[in-house]
Amino acid sequence: MNLKSIIFVLFIAFFAFSLANDDDPTCPNGFICFWVGQNYTGDQWKWTPRMNYRDLPRQYHNNVGSYVAKTNACFKNWIPYLTFECNEGDSSHSFTFGKIIDGVSHEC
Questions:
Q1: pTM, full prediction
Q2: Which CATH architecture has domain 25-105?
Q3: Domain ranges of the chain
C-alpha cells in the first residue's frame, strides 16, 4: 500500500468509528451527566457523590432533557417533595423527571 492508500483507509476508519459512536454520550465513570437537551445535546453538567447534595445549576433547574448515570444517585424535587432513584447504568434520552428536578444527592 502506498501512503495515500494508508491515509485514505485511516480516514475512512476514523469516520466510520465516529458515526458508530454518535449515540454514545460520554460521561466519566463515577459521575451522573446531565444535558439540557434531549438526546444528550446542549450543555452538560457532571455530578459525583463526593459533591454530596447539590442544587442543579440555574440552567439545569427544571430543565434536564437527558442524563447518563455512571453511579447511583437520587434526583430530588422539593415542592412537592418527590424523588427519583437512579442506578448506575441508567440513562434517558428524554427525561420526564428532568422537567421538575431541583437537585441531586447520593441518597434518597
A1: 0.76
A2: Sandwich (2.60)
A3: 25-105
The cell for 90 is 441508567
Q: 49-85, pLDDT tens digit by residue? A: 999 999 999 999 999 999 999 999 999 999 999 999 9
Quick check: 36 and 62 in contact, CB under 8 A?
no
38, three cell numbers: 434531549
80: left (phi over 0), alpha (psi -120 to 50) or beta: beta
- Whole-number Å distance between alpha carbons of 97 and 102: 10
Contact 108, 85 (CB under 8 A): yes
Secondary structure of residue 105 in the 3-state scheme: strand
DSSP of 21-77: TTTS----TT-EEEEEETTTEEEEEEE-GGG-SEEPPTTTTT---EEEESS-EEEEE
